Amino acid sequence: MKWIDYENAKTVDEAIKILSQSGGKARPMAGGTDLIVQLRNKDPRTDADVVVDIKDIPDLNVLQCDPKTGLTIGAAVPLYKIYNDDNVKKYFPAIIDSASLIGGVLIQGRASFGGNLCNAAPSGDAIPNLIAHNGIATIAGPNGTRDVPVEDICTGPRQTSIGNDELLISINLPVPAAGFGASYIRFTPRNEMDIAVVGAGVSVNISEGKFTAARVSLASVAPTPIYVENAVNALVGETVGDAAIQRAANAAREAAKPISDMRGTAEYRKHLCEVLTRRALNAAIERAKEGK
Ligand SMILES: Cc1cc2nc3c(=O)[nH]c(=O)nc-3n(C[C@H](O)[C@H](O)[C@H](O)COP(=O)(O)OP(=O)(O)OC[C@H]3O[C@@H](n4cnc5c(N)ncnc54)[C@H](O)[C@@H]3O)c2cc1C
């Protein structure tokens, strides 16, 4: 293994300074559950001379959930803190769906939603869920701070729109409106410690028996997690029921452009898109009815 310097940044400014001065050869590290594996495997996409540990930066450890302001998840907050938070459980139960299924207990002690998003794997289990919740990523760099919708972060497998000299600070989810429900489900051959063959993250807003808003996103069916606009169009304004749900599930199937690999053929994945979108929508509708 080549020599890699380790820096433990204590502030956002310090981390950005190190990133800016490294000529693109520094990598932020939150839990390290992706990064360390990639460095050990000498993955050419993760060449680094410096690893910048960001876990001690207070701004990246904020976990604030308030029914009046929404949910802020600092980029380095480990998953176990998210799924043990009583307010997250109460107001954003679908976020627990992702936090509690990534890896196993040991991974959940280190891994973060921020790392999951910045790693930009097509199969990242947090990403469709954050898209379904209208998540906004706050990114800081040498020229200040910018807010970007989560669906605009991943640009290719393990590629993002976050610059080499920038740092994801937090992911912010707006207050769920009345009649809101969301859900994330995935299919894996094993129950845990496996990569999603397909993942579906959805949300709905329901008023007087109709869908007033919706979001549908899929993982593992394209080079990046995708937002499925046609599935959303199949729902909004329609009566809540099997017909609209099936039209959205069909649209999800059509939007998927999967590859065939050892975990499933492209045709199987397309079939799973339909099944998982339908199931996730039904689960989200149940949560909307329960006021969760
Ligand atoms: C055994 C095992 C099981 C796993 N199971 C799953 C699973 O079920 N589902 C799943 O989706 N993933 C899984 N993973 C992958 C990994 O655990 C997750 O993607 C995790 O969420 C990554 O978070 P992290 O904090 O460890 O990221 P890190 O490894 O610290 O970082 C990942 C990438 O993001 C960059 N980065 C991190 N933070 C920032 C930031 N604030 N700003 C800019 N860039 C940043 C890093 O430089 C790196 O390129 C698994 C990994 C292992 C080893």
Features:
292 residues, alpha+beta, Uridine Diphospho-n-acetylenolpyruvylglucosamine Reductase, domain 3, Enolase-like, domain 1, 2 domains, 5-stranded antiparallel β-sheet, 4-stranded antiparallel β-sheet, 14 strands, 33% helix, globular, binds flavin-adenine dinucleotide
Structure write-up:
By secondary structure, the protein is of the alpha+beta class. It folds into two domains: 1-176, Uridine Diphospho-n-acetylenolpyruvylglucosamine Reductase, domain 3, CATH 3.30.465.10; 180-289, 2-Layer Sandwich (Enolase-like, domain 1). It is built from eleven helices and 14 strands. It has helices spanning 12-20, 35-40, 79-83, 86-91, 93-99, 105-108, 113-119, 127-132, 229-235, 242-255, 266-289; strands spanning 5-8, 26-29, 50-53, 63-66, 70-74, 136-141, 144-149, 154-156, 159-160, 167-173, 180-187, 198-207, 210-219, 226-227. The strands form four sheets. Strands 4-5-10-6-7 form a five-stranded antiparallel beta sheet, with helices on both faces. The N and C termini lie far apart (48 Å). Residues 27-35, 37, 54, 75, 102-103, 107, 110-112, 114-116, 118-119, 123-125, 162, 167-168, 193 line the site of flavin-adenine dinucleotide.
